[in-house]
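Our consortium's second objective concerns turning raw sequence data into structural hypotheses that experimental partners can test. To show how far this objective has progressed, the report includes one record in full. It was chosen at random from the queue rather than selected for favorable results. The single chain below, 325 residues long, was entered without modification.
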Amino acid sequence: MAYAIFSAFETGIIYAIMALGVYLTFRILDFPDLTVDGSFVTGAAVAAISIIAGVPPFLASLYGFVAGFVAGMITGILHTKGKINALLSGILMMIALYSINLRIMGSSNISLMSQETFFKQTQSFTSSTGIDSLLNSMFFFLGLNRSWGIILVMIVITLAIKFLLDFFLKTEVGLALRATGDNQRMIRSFSANTDWLIILGLGLSNGLVAFSGALIAQQGGFADAGMGVGLIIVGLASVIIGEALFGTKTIFRATLAIIGGAIVYRIVVTLALRADFLEAGDVRLITAIIVIAALITPKMIQKNREQKRRKQKRLKQAKEVENHA
């Protein structure tokens, strides 16, 4: 049980990067972007091919980010310049990316089991290269085993991305991006180029998603053409759970909530799958149930609170009437 939760936490902290990307489009831009299912695989495919070609794992992951960024920008161009519906432009790009990803990988699946990856332990400290050598040395110096060390590094990377995103959303461009999601007509009146802002936002979002895909591919030891199917639901589940549990009063709190939501979601799914009557194929069903519960529960709680307030108000009014009488 402890190992399962530990593994779920490690996976959740990686998926949190993807959830931050989904948050950027669905909450900040108010754009229903389905490119995510394709760009996640694009990041994994580009990273896998780069690693096989001898590129250092972390640099390969950054290549994945760039590929996802380009994919997101194309979705934005289809919507803003091609005047295609937001939902449809994402669907079209997602479909196109399936073929593009197959072209990149050359097959439907690429194994990284025999390759040096960000998460794979090397044979010795002296044989390591690049970022992996640095990580091995740091783990050894801190007295950490590899598993705890990887989680520590992923927490640092995810929090760094979170703080950079917080900083960006408070800059002039970031504020304009948020205003675009709130009211495009209003921000246009201030001479802001909303088309460019939408393209930039979608690029950043899918870049983060692709970066997460690159890391997931290295963690699992393979890149697969179907690994992104239904991923948008996972991202939305993380966003909704995080907002329901931790709140969204500020940008800092909202992005931190998204990270927490991704971890909680992964742990809940892992624990649910340990039930005897559930199978690995039930992950999507579990995800749907979790999202439904996360959407309905806060509304039910709010409704219950309002009913209690009305009841208390009626009792107070009744007592006032009695006192006057």
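The partners drew two points from this record. The chain has a mean pLDDT of 85. The two ends are 64 Å apart (CA to CA). Both points have been shared with the crystallography group to help prioritize constructs.
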